[in-house]
Amino acid sequence: MSISSEHKPLRKQVTGSLHTLSPIVELNVGGEMYTTTLSTLKKHPGSKLAEMFTGQPKLRTDSEGRFFIDRPGTYFKYILEYLRSNQVPTQCIQDVYKEALFYDIEPLIKQLEDSPQIFGELVARKQFLARVPNYSENIELMIRIARAEAVASRQSSVIVCVVRTEEDAARCQDALNSLDTDKKSVVKFGPWKAVPSISDLLDCIQMDVEAKGYKITVQPHVAEKGFRFKSQDFFYKFLFTWW
């Protein structure tokens, strides 16, 4: 089967070495089409994006001979805008940051990390959560408990014990010892040494569970038979709604 003349330049672009590669490059990024220059793509020599087009091209091509990058194409336009004009995006910051990390464009990564959205997430919130013992593991435990209790039910609940200090942890343990229900179904967070409050941690838990696609609400746990302490001091109910 012959190759049409309009595709020949692209085919030469694909198979050529660094010396024969066309200065105009056509890209297919996750189904989105872009046209740019080789010099734009190689603006930051140490980046992964530049390496893709250094020497023999290291990318597959689509049926039209365009270089194919298997990444979200929607956000690549922000990467190109930065490469062309040093314009730091103000939209879709979290998603563009992920792409900047993938392409390893160090100057863009650093500028995005100074933005309020990324700074707040990486420096403030994640540094706080790093001081909460077993935070990520407890999030996964909550989800496993909720899913296990969801059989033939529209909602399932998980009881969470949140303690900020060692003293509160001891009191919480006394409360758990007086609990009639299965203590294994109560997920404990804390204590921690950081400024954020219990309500801040509850917000973080809700945010991270919802980020995994679950619909939840949180409320103080109403004392039931078996408690010798005020349950609202430590205990909260996370309600998962399934349908």
From TrEMBL:
It comes from Campylorhamphus procurvoides. SMART domains: BTB. The lineage of its organism: Eukaryota, Metazoa, Chordata, Craniata, Vertebrata. The gene is Kctd14. This is KCD14 protein. Residues 23-120 form the BTB domain. One of its GO terms (biological process) is protein homooligomerization. InterPro entries: BTB/POZ_dom, KCTD7/14_C, SKP1/BTB/POZ_sf, T1-type_BTB. Signal peptide: none annotated.
